[in-house]
């Protein structure tokens, strides 16, 4: 995964150049789609990750005139928009009386790529461990593990240093590892 479109391309798109706008949206769509798939999965009936990624791209298009290059990659800007769009989709589903009955209180445990690898029983045991992590640590794991971003790319997106991202990832994985080990110890019968 690269760092998104070049700043010059983004500047031309911001100025209204249609070809540059198309190229920027083409460049950010794969990131938006992967992010939406990881965050949404099958949790919202009638809402697909593809539709939501399209919403993200439309929101990027609407926000482009207000974009200011502050030395961070453009994907950091796209990430903030994607986070907001996913949250908006969950809020909208909660307000829809028909969907509210269908939407679980928590996201479906089989939504993300890393979660799909786990069986339902495993996920029921792992979810409490994931919930012990801070939202920032879960986001770092999502970007690094599920989306395959490098520490540098993740750092640019979340506004931290690459070293901080690596430390957060290391600590989050250590927390998951120790919690899993404790669960295994408690599940093994003592004779």
Automatic annotation (TrEMBL):
Residues 27-95 form the RNA polymerase sigma-70 region domain. Residues 126-176 form the RNA polymerase sigma factor 70 region 4 type domain. One of its GO terms (biological process) is DNA-templated transcription initiation. It comes from the Bacteria. The keyword ATP-binding does not apply. The keyword DNA-binding applies. Keywords: DNA-binding, Sigma factor, Transcription, Transcription regulation. One of its GO terms (molecular function) is DNA binding. PANTHER family: ECF RNA POLYMERASE SIGMA FACTOR SIGD, RNA POLYMERASE ECF-TYPE SIGMA FACTO. Belongs to the sigma-70 factor family. ECF subfamily. This is RNA polymerase sigma-70 factor, ECF subfamily. It comes from Pseudonocardia oroxyli. The lineage of its organism: Bacteria, Bacillati, Actinomycetota, Actinomycetes, Pseudonocardiales.
């Amino acid at each position: 995964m690269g760092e998104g479109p070049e700043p010059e391309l983004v500047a031309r798109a911001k100025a209204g150049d249609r070809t540059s706008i198309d190229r920027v949206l083409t460049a950010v769509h794969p990131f938006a789609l992967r992010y939406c798939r990881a965050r949404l999965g099958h949790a919202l009936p009638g809402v697909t990750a593809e539709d939501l990624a399209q919403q993200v791209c439309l929101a990027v298009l609407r926000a482009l005139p207000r974009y200011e290059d502050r030395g961070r990659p453009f994907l950091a800007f796209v990430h903030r928009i994607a986070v907001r769009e996913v949250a908006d989709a969950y809020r909208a589903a909660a307000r829809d009386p028909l969907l509210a009955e269908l939407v679980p209180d928590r996201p479906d445990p089989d939504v993300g790529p890393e979660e799909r690898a786990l069986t339902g029983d495993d996920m029921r045991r792992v979810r409490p461990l994931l919930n012990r992590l801070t939202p920032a640590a879960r986001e770092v794991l999502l970007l690094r593990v599920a989306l395959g971003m490098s520490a540098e790319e993740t750092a640019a997106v979340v506004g931290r240093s690459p070293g901080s991202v690596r430390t957060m990832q290391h600590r989050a994985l250590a927390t998951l590892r120790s919690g899993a080990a404790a669960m295994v110890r408690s599940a093994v019968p003592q004779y």
